[in-house]
Write a structure and sequence with these properties.
The chain is α+β, with helices and mostly antiparallel strands. It has four helices and ten strands; from the N terminus they run βαββββααβββββα.
């Protein structure tokens, strides 16, 4: 029955500024109305609703104000530089100090985090192939270390 996510929503202070930010990420404006815009994540499959209003002041929590964009694992290694070229700085996740991509072996994914102009938490995330001996590893592993140990493989490769 369920095929994927159709939409997610974030609060923003300045709709015009936010539209420009997401377009800078390569996303396309789908529709704009009074105080709201929809940005295609995957054209005709999923979009992100941006709602202008005081709700952007809502304190961040992982269950609020967060969106993860799926990217190919092969592009994760260069994601921090890609963001910098767009004028966007990556941010550390949780108690980490590094902004570099990392792998969560037990979840089978890799991530790098950044924020939009309103402090909404954004993430590039990709599926990662995890060999059997690492499937229960809960510790986050720097992507460069992961590639040294396991290699550069996609989930569908294993």
């Amino acid at each position: 029955m369920i095929e994927g996510i159709y939409e997610a929503h974030l609060p923003v202070k300045d709709l015009t500024r936010s539209i420009q930010f997401y377009q800078n990420l390569g996303l396309e404006l789908a529709w704009e109305g009074e105080g709201i815009a929809f940005i295609w994540i995957e054209k005709h499959k999923s979009w992100l609703g941006l709602w202008e209003g005081a709700e952007y002041l809502t304190e961040y929590h992982p269950s609020l104000r967060h969106v993860a964009f799926r990217i190919p694992f092969e592009e994760m290694e260069n994601s921090v530089n890609w963001l910098l070229n767009k004028g966007i700085e990556a941010v550390p996740f949780g108690n980490r100090t590094s902004v570099q991509p990392f792998v969560r072996p037990n979840q089978g994914n890799a991530s790098v985090y950044f924020k939009d102009p309103d402090g909404n938490s954004l993430e590039f995330m990709s599926f990662v192939a995890v060999p059997g001996e690492f499937k229960n590893e809960c510790k986050k592993i720097e992507m460069m270390k992961w590639v040294e140990v396991v290699g550069l493989k996609r989930e569908r490769d294993i």
